[in-house]
């Protein structure tokens, strides 16, 4: 069975991780996620991540490494996550989000993450801790 890959970005800047609160669809609104979106035909996952973060948040990023694992999102959808470095721009909610927060590693539980993002966020924060040392 072919699955559509959805990429999520664990975007790091100044020792913090970017979290985005969903505004749509209604069943996800108000919950937090790592921003990203679907990989389009002809795109690699890192290319899709750069495009999605530019469209949704107005930022330029550099994908660094894939976070090990994949997480089912629903029928035919699977989540892959990448660490990414903020290169340029100030993140602002342009599409599908209504609020953004930069979280330090000890603030990971400060927002209500979507269930499928929780294991990704835990690993992203572990990676962030190692980068801060």
Gist of the model:
This protein has 133 residues and is an alpha+beta fold. The protein has 2 helices and 7 strands; from the N terminus they run E-E-E-E-H-E-E-E-H. A hairpin with a 2-residue loop joins strand 5 and strand 6.
Comma- or semicolon-separated keywords:
133 residues; alpha+beta; seven-stranded mixed beta sheet; 2 helices; 42% strand; globular
Level of helix content?
10-25%
The low-confidence parts are: none
Strand content: 35-45%
- Helix run count: 2
Our Rg estimate from Cα atoms comes to 14 Å
Secondary-structure content class: alpha+beta
Characterize the biggest β-sheet. Answer: 7 strands, mixed
* Measured distance between first and last alpha carbons: 42 Å
Morphology? globular
3D architecture notes:
The chain is an alpha+beta fold. The chain is 21% helix and 42% strand. Strands 1, 2, 3, 4, 5, 6 and 7 form a seven-stranded mixed beta sheet that branches. The radius of gyration is 14 Å and the shape is globular. The protein starts with a strand and ends with a helix.
